[in-house]
Amino acid sequence: MKVYVPRDSAAKALGADAVASAIAYGAEARGIDVTVIRTGSRGMVWLEPLVEVERDGVRHGYGPMTPADVPALLDGTLDGLGPVEEIPFFARQTRLTFARCGVIDPLDLDAYAAHGGLVGLRRAIAMTGQQIVDEVKDSGLRGRGGAGFPTGIKWQTVHDAPADQKYIVCNADEGDSGTFADRMIMEGDPFTLIEGMAIAGLAVGATRGYVYLRSEYPDAITVMQEALRIGRARGLLGADVLGSGRAFDMEIRVGAGAYVCGEETSLLNSMEGKRGVVRAKPPLPAIEGFLGRPTVVNNVISLATVPVIFERGAQHYADFGLGRSRGTMPVQIAGNVKRGGLFETAFGLPLGELVEDVAGGTASGRPVKAVQVGGPLGAYMPPETFETPFAYEEFDGQGGLIGHAGVVVFDDTADMLQMARFAMEFCAVESCGKCTPCRIGAVRGVETIDRIAEGDAAAKDLLVDLCDTMTDGSLCALGGLTPYPVLSAMRNYPEDFARSKEAAE
Q1: How far is C-alpha 479 from the chain's CA centre?
Q2: Helix (H) or strand (E) holding 264
Q3: Pick from 143, 221, 183: which is nearest to 477 by CA?
Q4: How far, in Å, CA of 271 to CA of 264, rounded?
Q5: Does domain 2-91 have CATH number 3.40.30.10?
Q6: Which CATH architecture has domain 109-318?
Q7: Which CATH number fits domain 416-504: 2.60.120.330, 3.40.250.10, 2.60.120.10, 1.20.1440.230?
Q8: Segment 307-338, tens digit of pLDDT
Q9: d(Cα 481, Cα 401) in Å, to the nearest integer?
Q10: Interval 135-180: pLDDT, tens
């Protein structure tokens, strides 16, 4: 009897370790031969801990599980959810990047290979660097960390840059509110990230890679470190990658918790032991990056998606999506929802379908008032925009951004003036201080919103002017995008900004 219990942080926070221990203890007490396999998460967080029992090759789900449910599970009397892959939330997904997450033991390299792992790397080994870059270009893959820049173009720049040493840097500093895809893939399928980075190294001629991982993710750090050890021992990393005669090795660097270090140049400064402040561009990191050398800086999901592109071919990946938004996106659903979790789907699904159908609407049962997409710097989207397809250009046309694809839902009790204030306060706290529009503008923004809350109607125009200055003058996206939530809140919820002095008093 095989029983699968997740070791993902979210599942562990909800009691997965206690459930796993209870299963092992109960099986021993009953004399039942049970193999407990710890996996990543399937991403259905509202069902965690989600325990799966394999019967005739089909995995049946039970959740949310507690230790008290274990005796009934082992006796076969516990009501279940049916086959896990038939649960509606899961069945309607298009799982490419996350195909193995929640399915295998994340540190079992043989299981990884049995489920399609390493096929892409073996294919890439037989290709030239330029052929690898062209394959990524043809796939249409764009950066999944927020900017949406074409991955193949970035790789081409590093490929063409002359240097005796080049680097691959994975930005795993996942700091946006409502996002957890990077953590899930590192904890649930770390070898896909390692494989993707190795392919990137072969493409551009880089022999060293680094994962800049936030200190707030101790489980991800532990899993990635062990995966690197296994990878070296099995020839996946080192001086002779899979017997190819080509070298690529990598290591983990742990950040100290600064949100701004999610910006690529601030991240590189931090890796070099410097203060995490934004660098002026040019030069771009692709020309002068880590230690002044040509550097590919990609997000976890960008790099973890590369293996499936090489396993199945660029065209297979490009066939999914809408317009210039190709492939799939792991949407992270959070906030006031009935069904929160990770939902991987091809670009193009309407926002309203994600919120009302996939997520089931609000957990409170009240009407949806706003949906913030793209983290704390994302715009607030009202229900009137719910027909907008989930894709880069389409969101841009509505004054929004996809960012890292975090979707946070608010019901009609949310005060959008206070949400706008939070955005400015967040920027003021997290600013690296390098540029004046961000460092000073965010502080003035909090003060100006407080004036509006006190009934000063003239302060609204001042706030708009301040946002324009931050957008045009900030060195990086922290100051440049903070106006998105502020202006969208003002534009879409004017009633929350129509405070009178009498009401304020």
Answers
A1: 21
A2: helix 264-271
A3: 143
A4: 10
A5: yes
A6: 3-Layer(aba) Sandwich (3.40)
A7: 1.20.1440.230
A8: 999 999 999 999 999 999 999 999 999 999 99
A9: 10
A10: 999 999 999 877 789 999 999 999 999 999 999 999 999 988 899 9
